[in-house]
Structure formats: structure tokens, C-alpha cells
Write a structure and sequence with these properties.
three-stranded antiparallel beta sheet; single chain; 7 strands; Na+/H+ antiporter like fold; alpha+beta
């Protein structure tokens, strides 16, 4: 089986790819957590806060990615290339559909929780079609098995972008619509609009049109047209192109895509880790093997440098079904033991650390001008109601309330959403392993088998046939595209983005083995 021989260069590039991802993940965790916010809330900690990540994701998908799509497709495509390998355009959405089908079957057979199925399927069905294949093919073209391929690197890169045309068209229509449904904002809007009849249908059609004409898709279609029309290609690309200044500017933005997307991806991964304190994780493990902690509901801790001044009052009320916290944020003359009847109760999200400490960001409440806040969480204790009051210094940055960690009661929608985020890694070890096995072993093996079986019938035995099939093979065995995490952040599906980021990191830890195995099989099959 000499055809299975793969040089050390291929092993090195696979190891280097995995090593780079692991290094980037460490940097992302650091940027996400340091400097720490006084409240300890990971959303507010780090050089990039959660709100900043979403804004960067919006800029990336509105400016950087359209520039990348236009410059790569416009400069690489040609009519001659497209005539011979046009089925590659159809293969990209076909493999996404195959991934969707296989992942759906896995979810049904292995009982993946319903709330995670959509993102599980989405992550399995959208592999990395550009960055990893280009790196792998650059090295493979230097191997002895591909010595007979003239201009191997240039041709393989052109074939990659032919396939990307179909991938872009699929992702920025079907994929984008799926991601929008992961957003809590979209889910709430759909719930409010349920049963509105014709107006809902009209809004759906309008939304479909808006989704189709999004910046990345416009950039892809523009690049496709420019690449296939020689006269237009001469206007934008080449040493004497009249509009070269515009493509030079676009290439500048395109060059930053990998860095920007990596930042969003790995800072999202960092934000999915609530704490880096090893003692907290050790305590969490210990609590798994002992009864629930019976702490008092009256324990209050205030974070801030000033412990003496009084500017706000807090009251705790506990019952069997819920714990509510009523707070009046006002000046000393306005404070009272109970919130006034005319004051509106407002529910705001609060975070819980691994020790069961409820964190309320006082700065955030003050900035949003909330006069009161109410938070409900079951305590599992007796029916007796307990009350206590405490003072919050004006310089305090966070209020910490010791709350029992166990709960069986109904929570508010806001609390449910926050609880869902706090369990951002709730795919669990079983589902994470299932995701990696499906996306890195089952699907690549299935797609490689289909390419070996159908490839000769579709592409024949022409000069480009072997290289085209190898390109499709490499594009079929890569981890999930980082773009999914970026777009999830843009659309407000933060918890989904964090869960996917952990799955993608785990994919790369096994990629060094899976990439080598399937690459060797592909080279042996086509050369």
C-alpha cells in the first residue's frame, strides 16, 4: 500500500494546525477573563466584554467577510475552470444536507436533548471549507504522489473557491435562517407573533428577501460575476486594472478575516468558562458527592471598598417556592424598608457562580435606571418566610447573595434564559463526544466514500479529475467552520456560540489523527 505513504510534512502541518488552535484558545481564555470585573461576572470581565464580541462579529460579517468573498472569488474563478468542475458548486450544499441528515439521525437515535439538537445539527453540517483545506492542499501538492500535477497549488486553490461558491450560497440563506432561530430574541418575537395570519406570512417573505441580500452573499455573488466575466475581471484585478485601488482596499480587509474571526471564536470559548479558579472547580466536584448545602438565605455580602455609607436597601424574602429580592436604589432620604406600591417590579438577569452565589451587578442596575429588581429561585426549604435587610454602599460594584443551588420550581423567562447561559457547556461530556465522533469520523468517512464512488462518474478521467476529487475530500474532513460561532454571536445566540466553541475545540484535539487518516485514504484513492 505504497499509496498510503504520507511524508512528515503532512504530519507536521496537521500537528501545526492543531497546535495553533490550542494556542489561540489559551489567548482567547486570557482575553475573556482578564482583567476581572469586581462582580466576578465573566460577561463583564476581560479585555473584550460580551457586548463587544457581538459588535465585532457584526463588523466581521458586514465588512471583512464580504471583502474576502469578493476578492477570492473574483480573482480565482474563470469560465474555463467553471465549465469543467461546475459540479463542485452543487457538492457543497449537498454535503451540508448530508451532514444535516446524519446529525438528525444521531440526535434521534442517541437522544440528544431537544434544546441542543438544532445547534448540534448545524455544527455537524458546516465544515471548514476554506482555511484548513488551503493549508492542507499547499503541503499535499509538494508530496511525491502529486508530482505529476502542474501548478498544483494554484489549481487546487481555484477548485477550493469554486466549491465555496455553493457553500456561501447555502450558508448565507439556509444556514443563516437556522442560526436566527437559535437567538432568544427571535424565539421571543416568534412567540409573540404566533397566529397573526397573513401579516406573519408577509413578514416571513420580507425576512427571506432580507436574508438573501445580506452583505456576505452580495460579496460572493459579485465575486462570482466578476470572475466569470473576463472584461469585469480585467477592471478589478491585474497590474493595470483601472479599479485596482478598490480591490486593494478590499484585500486589506480580507487579510484581517482570519484574525478577527479567530478573536471572536476563542474569546467566545473563554467566556463559556465561568471561572478559572481551580479551587472553585474542586469545590464543585466535592459538592457532587455530598448533600445539598443548607445555607441561610439571610447571608449577604457586598463587594466594594466602602462598607459604612448607606445609599440603598435590600430585602430578602424566602418561601418554599421562590426567593425574591426587592431592592430600592435611591438616595438616603428616599430609602424605605419596603418598595413603594407605585414602583414597578422589574426582573433583570443575575449570574450564579459555581458556589451558588447570586451576583447582581449594581452598576448595571443603576445605569439602566431600574428602581427595583425581583429575582426568583427555588430554595427547597420549609414554608416559613424569612426576611432580612442590608445596606449597599454607593461605591459597591456587586451584590452577592448566598442562595441554595438546588431548584425544582418554575422560573421566569429571564431566569430560564440566564440559567441556560450559565450551563453553556450543557452539551455534557456524552454529547460532546457524540458530536466529535459524528463530525470528525462518521461524516468524513461517509462523504469520502461517496466521493470515491461517484467522483469518476461525475468528473470523468480528465486532467483535473483526480485533483478535484482530492480537494473535495479535504473539504469534507475538516472541523466545523469558525464562521458559525461568529454569526451566532452576531445574531445574539450567545449560549449556542459558546457551546459550539467548546465542541470545535474538542474537534481540533482529535483532528491531528482524523485528518491524517482520511488524507492518506484520499491520496491513495485518487493517486
Amino acid at each position: 500500500m505504497g499509496g498510503l505513504d504520507i511524508s512528515g510534512d503532512v504530519v507536521a502541518v496537521a500537528a501545526s494546525t492543531v497546535g495553533s488552535v490550542l494556542m489561540l484558545s489559551l489567548v482567547g481564555v486570557f482575553v475573556a477573563h482578564y482583567p476581572k470585573h469586581p462582580s466576578g461576572d465573566v460577561r463583564l470581565s476581560g479585555m473584550l466584554q460580551q457586548s463587544s464580541i457581538r459588535q465585532i462579529a457584526k463588523v466581521a460579517t458586514t465588512v471583512y467577510i464580504p471583502c474576502l468573498a469578493f476578492t477570492r472569488l473574483g480573482s480565482r474563478l474563470s469560465i474555463d475552470t467553471m465549465k469543467e468542475v461546475w459540479p463542485m458548486v452543487l457538492y457543497a450544499p449537498a454535503q451540508c444536507l448530508l451532514g444535516t441528515l446524519v446529525a438528525w439521525l444521531v440526535c434521534r437515535v442517541f437522544l440528544v436533548p431537544k434544546q441542543f439538537r438544532q445547534e448540534f445539527i448545524l455544527a455537524c453540517s458546516h465544515p471548514n471549507m476554506i482555511a484548513v483545506p488551503l493549508v492542507m492542499l499547499e503541503v499535499l501538492c509538494q508530496q511525491s504522489q502529486l508530482a505529476g500535477e502542474d501548478s498544483c497549488s494554484e489549481r487546487s486553490a481555484a477548485f477550493v473557491f469554486v466549491s465555496v461558491v455553493g457553500w456561501y450560497l447555502y450558508f448565507w440563506t439556509v444556514g443563516l435562517e437556522t442560526i436566527k432561530h437559535l437567538s432568544p430574541e427571535t424565539q421571543a418575537l416568534e412567540a409573540n407573533q404566533g397566529g397573526e395570519g397573513s401579516s406573519t406570512i408577509w413578514q416571513s417573505l420580507k425576512q427571506l428577501v432580507n436574508n438573501f441580500f445580506n452583505p456576505p452573499l452580495i460579496g460572493s455573488l459579485s465575486g462570482l460575476v466578476v470572475g466569470l466575466v473576463p472584461e469585469l475581471q480585467d477592471l478589478f484585478f491585474g497590474g493595470k486594472a483601472p479599479l485596482l485601488f478598490s480591490t486593494s482596499a478590499a484585500k486589506t480587509y480580507a487579510a484581517a478575516v482570519v484574525g478577527v474571526m479567530s478573536t471572536v471564536m476563542f474569546v467566545t470559548l473563554g467566556k463559556s468558562i465561568p471561572s478559572l479558579d481551580l479551587r472553585e472547580h474542586a469545590a464543585k466536584l466535592l459538592r457532587m458527592f455530598r448533600p445539598a448545602d443548607k445555607r441561610s438565605l439571610e447571608d449577604v455580602e457586598v463587594a466594594g471598598p466602602d462598607d459604612t455609607s448607606t445609599n440603598s436597601s435590600v430585602q430578602l424574602m424566602a418561601s418554599r417556592d421562590s426567593i425574591s429580592v426587592g431592592a430600592v436604589l435611591a438616595g438616603p432620604s428616599q430609602c424605605s424598608d419596603q418598595p413603594s406600591s407605585h414602583q414597578q417590579q422589574h426582573t433583570v438577569p443575575a449570574s450564579y457562580d459555581d458556589n451558588g452565589v447570586l451576583l447582581i451587578d449594581v452598576d448595571r442596575v443603576l445605569e439602566e435606571n431600574h428602581l427595583s429588581l425581583a429575582l426568583a429561585r427555588a430554595n427547597g426549604q420549609d414554608d416559613a418566610r424569612a426576611t432580612s435587610s442590608a445596606t449597599v454602599p454607593p461605591s459597591a460594584t456587586a451584590l452577592k447573595l448566598l442562595v441554595p443551588a438546588t431548584s425544582n420550581a418554575t422560573t421566569t423567562p429571564e431566569q430560564k434564559q440566564e440559567k441556560d447561559h450559565q450551563s453553556a457547556a450543557s452539551w455534557g461530556a456524552r454529547n460532546l463526544v457524540l458530536f466529535v465522533v459524528t463530525s470528525m469520523l462518521v461524516l468524513p468517512g461517509s462523504k469520502l466514500g461517496l466521493i470515491i464512488w461517484l467522483g469518476p462518474h461525475v468528473f470523468g478521467s480528465g486532467a483535473n479529475a483526480a485533483l478535484v476529487q482530492l480537494v473535495l475530500c479535504i473539504q469534507s474532513i475538516t472541523p466545523t467552520a469558525n464562521l458559525l460561532v461568529v454569526v451566532c454571536q452576531r445574531e445574539g445566540a450567545r449560549a449556542s456560540a459558546e457551546r459550539m466553541s467548546r465542541g470545535i475545540l474538542l474537534q481540533y484535539t482529535v483532528a491531528i489523527g482524523s485528518l491524517l487518516i482520511f488524507t492518506a485514504l484520499g491520496v491513495a484513492a485518487f493517486y
